[in-house]
Amino acid sequence: MEEKLQHELDDETLFVVSQTFKALSDPTRIRILNFLCCEEHSVNEIAEALNLGQTTVSHQLRFLKNLRLVKFRREGTTLYYSSDDDHVMNLLHQAVDHAKH
Length: 101
Hints:
Pfam families: HTH_5 (PF01022)
Radius of gyration: 16 Å
Protein name: Winged helix-turn-helix transcriptional regulator
Order of helices and strands: HHEHHEEH
Domain HTH arsR-type: 9-101
Structural class: alpha+beta
Number of strands: 3
CATH superfamily: Winged helix-like DNA-binding domain superfamily/Winged helix DNA-binding domain
Number of helices: 5
Keywords: DNA-binding, Transcription, Transcription regulation
CATH architecture: Orthogonal Bundle
Shape: globular
Strand order of the largest sheet: 1-3-2
C-alpha cells in the first residue's frame, strides 16, 4: 500500500488550497497570471496587452495579491506586478499544457 499521503488536512490548508483553485478558476486571472509569468508589468501594461479595463485588472490583481500569488513594487506612482508563487505558476503551466495536449 502506498505511503499514507491522504492524511487529514487542517482547516487552514483546506482554505488555502480551495482559494488557490478559485483563483485559477477565473479566465481573467489565468490570463493575468500567465502574462506575469516571465516579467513584471504595470496595471496599464497588463490592461493594454490583455485588452481589459484598468479597473478589472486592478480588482483581479488585488484578489491575487491577497492570496500571495502576485507581488508588487512601487516606482514613483506606478505599481509593477509580478508572479509570487512558483508552485502555483507551475500548476498553471501544467494545466495549460494538459489542455493543449
